[in-house]
Design brief:
By secondary structure, the protein is α/β, with parallel strands linked by helices. The chain has a domain of 84 residues: Orthogonal Bundle (Arc Repressor Mutant, subunit A). It is built from four helices and seven strands. Helix 1 crosses helix 3 and helix 2 crosses helix 3. The termini are far apart.
């Protein structure tokens, strides 16, 4: 019997989930997929300046898992920038954080993230 899947806690979804060169057509050979949990590690570590330990606690996963996710995310960003590929942010093993206690104690920054998505659907 396999081990049960452990979902990563994510505070918010990205406002924009498509990035890429302005002068290239989007095609299936010219894109990279980044998962929502990879996006969250970049947001927490690079933008919010969390340590890997604090990021792991926030996402409810092991620090070594955060390290692997973070390294994959940075590699994808580098491939997109250096090779001029489109970057799409979608999918992954995550659940949106809805813990009001985390919001009150400051551990969750969902209330500070921009609005633009609800349950993976874009708000127009």
């Amino acid at each position: 019997m396999s081990r049960p899947k452990k979902w990563r806690s994510v505070c918010c979804l990205p406002i924009n989930n498509k990035f890429g060169p302005l002068d290239s057509p989007a095609n299936t050979e010219n894109f990279i997929n980044m998962t929502i949990d990879e996006y969250e590690t970049i947001r927490l570590i690079d933008l919010e300046e969390f340590t890997q330990e604090k990021c792991a606690s926030q996402m409810n996963i092991a620090r070594t898992t955060v390290q692997g996710i973070y390294n994959n995310a940075r590699k994808k960003i580098a491939q997109s920038l250096v090779n001029g590929k489109f970057l799409f942010i979608k999918g992954g093993e995550y659940r949106l954080c809805d813990n009001l206690e985390k919001i009150r104690t400051g551990n969750c920054r969902r209330h500070r993230c921009g609005k633009g998505f609800v349950d993976n659907e874009e708000i127009l």
